[in-house]
Structure to design on (335 residues):
């Protein structure tokens, strides 16, 4: 399968490497980036052609499917172009910066009548999260009551907008909560206290987001972009008769002068490298089989709608905000 990749910054370049080295059936045939030097570097290592115009990648006759890893604001027009061409597309999260934009993508796909859009919620492929989902579905802890999530990055820009923390980072947790629990999130509040000394101005970091699902499960998310010591994504699901957790920063355990230790991943590539590999393999296999796999455009819309509600809760200071996804019914294409 010949893949065109739009956006060859850190994420896009990582995907190109994974597709080239670890996905047997795939080859990257065309790339585009606003910065031609980034595109050229990736092209050299993968043998792809560099195209100046991202829309030319979508339209290219030799491109069977498109991977979008460009800036969030470009996702909507690029995904719509893929839908217009009838080409399968894997779009990095968030599907779009606003719920309205994500809803337009859903509407276009429904109009097309085929699921062509996959959203890059790679945690659904992480062995730890998958094991948790399977154990929960098997009834190991009974009905869920609470989900505690921790999302820590080592560092961000000191002026990283607080809204971006919710839309670009906490959005992973909203997806995980929906995916694990099989329920929509209907309320969210955002709390912040003393900011880290590593941020400036209005940037709120860390934040605590507290959400509630339609079935009344409480979901709390610690989102912290400047923990400094490494990258962590973990959670604990509390049920009626036990708990299940993903608490595996990395596989490495050690002994040293400081005693027993576990190595914490440095960043997302290390923590979720295997999840990304599995995600891309499944996407490529699904496209080859004519099947949709992974998170749908509806999932992308629902997670973005929760993020948008979080951003408005942050702005208004109101403890709870209804989520628009409640008022938009799920189209049959996604049932
Ligand atoms: C980034 O875009 C990701 O998707 C990472 O998984 C997340 O941890 C990070 O905060 C985001 O900026």
């Amino acid at each position: 399968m010949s893949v065109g990749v739009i956006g060859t910054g850190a994420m896009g370049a990582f995907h190109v490497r994974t597709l080239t080295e670890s996905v047997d059936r795939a080859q990257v045939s065309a790339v585009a980036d606003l910065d031609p030097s980034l595109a050229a570097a990736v092209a050299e290592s993968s043998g792809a052609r560099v195209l100046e115009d991202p829309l030319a990648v979508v339209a290219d006759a030799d491109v069977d499917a498109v991977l979008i890893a460009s800036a969030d604001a470009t996702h909507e027009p690029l995904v719509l172009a893929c839908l217009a061409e009838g080409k399968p597309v894997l779009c990095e999260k968030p599907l779009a910066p606003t719920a309205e934009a994500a809803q337009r993508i859903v509407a276009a796909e429904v109009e097309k009548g085929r699921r062509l859009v996959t959203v890059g919620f790679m945690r659904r492929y992480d062995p730890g999260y998958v094991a948790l989902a399977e154990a929960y579905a098997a009834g190991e802890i009974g009905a869920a009551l609470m989900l505690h999530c921790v999302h820590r990055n080592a560092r961000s820009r000191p002026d990283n907008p607080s809204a971006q923390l919710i839309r670009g980072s906490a959005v992973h947790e909203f997806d995980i909560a929906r995916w694990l629990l099989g329920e929509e999130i209907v309320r969210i509040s955002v709390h912040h206290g003393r900011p880290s000394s590593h941020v400036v101005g209005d940037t709120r970091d860390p934040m605590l987001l507290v959400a509630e699902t339609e079935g009344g499960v409480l979901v709390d998310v610690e989102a912290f972009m400047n923990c400094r010591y490494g990258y962590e994504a973990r959670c604990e699901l509390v049920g009626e008769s036990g708990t299940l957790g993903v608490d595996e920063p990395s596989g490495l355990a050690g002994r040293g002068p400081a005693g027993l230790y576990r190595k914490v991943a440095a960043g997302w590539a290390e923590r979720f490298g295997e999840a990304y590999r599995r995600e891309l393999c499944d996407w490529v296999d699904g496209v080859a089989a004519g099947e949709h796999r992974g998170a749908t455009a509806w999932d992308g819309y629902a997670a973005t709608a929760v993020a948008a509600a979080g951003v408005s809760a942050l702005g208004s200071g109101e403890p709870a905000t209804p989520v628009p996804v409640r008022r938009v019914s799920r189209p049959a294409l996604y049932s």
Observations:
- DSSP finds nine helices and 15 strands in the chain.
